[in-house]
Amino acid sequence: PWISGWESSAIYEVDWVDVREFLSRNVPDYANFLPVDPSVLERELRRLSRTWQQWWLGLPVLTAPDDLRGQIQRAYTSRLIQADRFDAANIEEDPGISPQMAHQILGRIDAHLTTRDQLGSSVIQKYRVEAQSMVLSQLSSHGSQVLTILQMPTGSGKTLTAIRHALRVISDGRAHRIIYVAPYLSIVDQTASILRDITGLSVMIHHHLSLPDHPAETKEQPEGVLLALESWQAPIVVTTFNQLFRAIFPYTAQQSIRLAALEHAVLIIDEPQIIDVNVWNAFLFGLDASCREMGTTALIMSATVPPVAYAQLSEPPSMIVAPPLPATLVRYMVDVADEPW
Q: What is the layout of strands, in order, in the sheet containing 318-321?
């Protein structure tokens, strides 16, 4: 941290006697290592880069997956930065969705679906009802799993199924926030609109072009509104893979601030096959580490989920596959010619 952005003159502006007194009360084992003379401290800092490099190069090579998991996740960093910046900006952490609220929303969704199902009699509509019911039943029985893979055909209602599952988890008191992740801005906007209509709750959209909502009547400062956006302070967040990667693999410590929002959240990851094959296993590995640390329930869903056997996960994820489409709904026939051309 001292290699860039460090002004050595700042050393002479600090009351190091009081700093040392503070350290002696809170971390007495390390207080004596801090020199109170600024010139001595400046000399020590000049040597520190080399000392740090020698210490780093002397660390044992990490090969065990459990050791690697502990190194890559930044939960403590995220919590510290969030606490500091929220206090400075004078904003409160969003409480999320209560179990009672989730139960009420589920009731409205079920009532709507019952009415719609009575109106429709097509083959695809009957398939959707049966497939979603079967998948939700399996998801309920795998409730303790950190990572769950959901494979459903396109058009079978993956998004609605995932939302209903997330609300059930919240109504059981095991989570309080929904974070939906998609690869494209078009899907992000479309899903955010669906979530607003279904839940009636505030839905935050976050991507590289997002602007925070800042209504004229609010007294909150602009930097507080922007901070709420960057840290995913909303009951429902719809975001992109890029922003999720910055939480799990932060390039700077500040990017880790949104990792704290994953704590006791339901994370829905849609269309993961878009992730480059070269980073897919690393993504799964980091996702597993972060979810276990933050108590997050992750649902990875697609019609074609990439293989997960090579990511060295702490335990195999649950695999839930919807029933196959009825033969009458198959739209394509493929003929394979075996003879040479």
A: 203-206, 236-240, 177-182, 265-270, 297-302, 147-151, 318-321
pLDDT at 217 over 50: no
Contact call for residues 291 and 244 (beta carbons, < 8 A)? no
* pLDDT one-digit tens code per residue, 246-303: 999 998 888 899 999 999 999 999 999 999 888 999 999 999 999 999 999 999 999 9
Give 72's Cβ-side CA count (13 Å radius): 23
Contact residues for 162 (Cβ-Cβ < 8 A; gap 6+): 150, 180, 268, 270, 299, 301
What helix, strand, coil percent values describe the chain, rounded to 5? 55, 10, 35
pTM of the model: 0.80
Alpha carbon distance 256, 76 (integer Å): 9
User: Residues 78, 80, 86, 92: what is their CA dihedral angle, to the nearest 10 degrees?
Assistant: 80
Q: Computed over its alpha carbons, how large is the radius of gyration of the chain?
A: 25
The residue ranges of DSSP E strands in 122-276, in sequence order, are 147-151, 177-182, 203-206, 236-240, 265-270
Q: Is 144 within 8 Å of 335 (Cβ atoms)?
A: no
User: In this predicted model, which residue has the larger pLDDT, 209 or 182?
Assistant: 182
Q: What is the Cα–Cα distance from 145 to 155, expressed in whole angstroms?
A: 26
Rounded to whole angstroms, the maximal C-alpha distance in the chain is 86
Tens digit of each residue's pLDDT (9 = 90 or more) over 80-114: 999 999 998 888 899 999 999 999 999 988 888 87
Using DSSP, how many helices (H) and how many strands (E) does the chain show?
A: 12, 7
Angle of helix 241-248 relative to helix 277-294, nearest 10 degrees, comes to 60
Amino acid of residue 274: I
A 10 A CB-CB count for 19 gives 13
Query: Nearest Cα to 181, choosing from 270, 245, 298, 247?
Result: 270
